[in-house]
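User: I've been going back and forth on whether these two constructs are worth ordering. Before I decide, could you fold them both?

Assistant: Sure. I'll take them in the order you sent them. The first construct and its structure tokens:
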Amino acid sequence: MRFVYDALLGNHLRGMRHIESPDRVLAVAEGLRDAGLFDDVAPGRLALDSEISRVHPPSYIAMLQREAAATSTHAYLSTGDVFIDAESPHVARYAAGCALVALEYTLTEGKPSFALVRPPGHHAEPARGMGFCLYNNVAIAARAARAHGFERVLIVDFDYHHGNGTQAIAGDGVSYVSSHAFPAYPGTGGIDDQRHLQDAVSLNLPLQARGVASEGFVAAWDLLVRDVCARVRPHVLLVSAGFDYVAGDPVGDLGIDASVAASLARALHAAAATYCDGRLVYVLEGGYHVPSIIESIGLIARATDTPSPRESGAQLSALGDMEHAALARIGATLDCY
């Protein structure tokens, strides 16, 4: 698997005690290297204003730069719950550029890629940074794919938290499907939040915040990937890969075993092969326990390189009533698409 990464991603909030720390990419990269999985690595680049502004208005880009320049150490961005320092706009622009480089590789080669980046992005709304997120990396990549002429893009998001920012940009050929703890932060993506949009859908599977069975989580994503792809028939598949759902994560924790990442990857790889000519891009979102991130991404890398994806055999009976009700609403929404 091709990784896109650079150590400069550690410059955001360097030296500050914060859960969204540089180790989320620096130590993860080293762990993947030690496992022999980090040989195919490309540098990113800075995303251009023209690329970022497909998602974020110029006024927001300028505000982020202005507020960071006025910060001597670190401070909250005025739009929400995200810290910034003087390096933050540069690093956030580079993170978005890494997602774009990963996309460009995948569009050219037809092979999966993984943008190992921080700060994460899926909470960043067009004019509002929040939830550790400044620029919405996966949304910027989705809009770039559309600009490249790919009519239908699907974003899959299995982070512990709902990607409110990504949902905000869905439509006009970009579909979104998310599983997430509910009513955990940011409190969006409830059971009735299923939408038909312009040439797209936005679908939400809220999960009990107290946790779900690993088997049920895998079974739900087997079903979602199969049914959503069959309806949307995406040309490009993007993944908001957040690993804070894993048991023991200090921010999330749905009680799910890290091993499920292999099953998720097999389902996504099969869908990309069927509908997208292999165009599959992962972008790191949450996940705050470094060993779990290393294990999960390692499993994805190995599973993606497996020639013959297989069915997981997981059963939906492992899910609870709320999850079954949400899946029924998702199915009804897809039936009308």
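The second construct, handled the same way:
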Amino acid sequence: MIDLVPPISADQLISEFRRGEMVLLVLDQSDGEQTGVVAMAAEYCEASHITFMARQARGLVSLALTEERCEQLSLAPMVDPATSGSVKLSIEASTGIDTGISAVDRARTVRVAVASDAKPSDLVQPGHIFPVATLAGGVLIRTGAAEAGVDLATLAGLTPAAAFAEVLDAHGDLADAAALVEFADQHDLKVGRVTDLVDYRLNHSRTVEVIRRGAVPTQHGEFLLRVYRESTQGHIHLALSRGDVQIDTPTLVRVHTAASLRDLVAVTAADRASWSIQESLARIALEGAGVLVLINKEETDSDLLAQVDAALGSNLPDDSHKQGVGYSQVGMGAQILRDLGVGKIRLMGAPVKYNALEGFGLEVVEFIEPEFIKSGEVSKA
């Protein structure tokens, strides 16, 4: 796609948003696939834009908002906030509309929601516009379409909100690279990459900084510990490294979010084994070089229950609708890896699509399935 439809720079993307133009934002995934959304600054949204998103892009018309704006409007989550609090119950303007589903009505709902003096009584739920709350830190934390839209609007000096819709093909599936090429050409849309926006933001600001560092003894020998503070959310994250890390040499990496059953009780699902902290450190020690990043994320009751269900082999809800979307909340770990000098990654973990890693200067060149370390030897689990 890049050869056929040259992307514009992040600066040009910001200018397009500032002028109230729609753009095609492309999300690059680590397996080389691409998906796209049509997006624009929400405060400029008119009926014609809604019509284009609904009829031409064909995806769900959504409204990306900051969490602060969602709180200002008292927007209720669509589901349990412990599992997916970013998606809010659909909204409708409480006055000045008819059925709410027309393009005119939906455009009014968008503009009402992003007005500077907007209040909860200006909206009702449910409705026909679907709000998505973004994470503080934007694409430096989660490389999603909503975060990209809000970042672009903010950088353009506008209300931090964006209207967007996924681009679907004629069969209703997410459009692939070839279909996105045709779509952009047919509608004369400027194309921008979320990867380039990540790189732009990294060059102007970062959200992690080292606040402690030093050598620490572990069961697997001495590691260099770095403690990072993430500024937008205030969380503390850890990185343990050993050996010579070079940007052009593939580095053994584990980015780890704590899970009680796996890390404290050593219980894993038979069909979904994953690396524990101790196994990760042992593998790094065995090879002599590598990095373990420990992401400090609060484990909710829902998280723990999901681990139990998986370990017991319970029938879980079908998550097939999520396949192909890619894992986007990579920003904290990616910034830390970039600070450590990592470039090419041998990732300890199952193959997963990661959005916009290139913008962080990272590339996954290998996935390493979980293994057990016994008596200095590596054996497959």
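Notes on the second construct follow. The domain at 206-380 is CATH 3.40.50.10990 (Rossmann fold). The chain has two domains: 10-203, 206-380.
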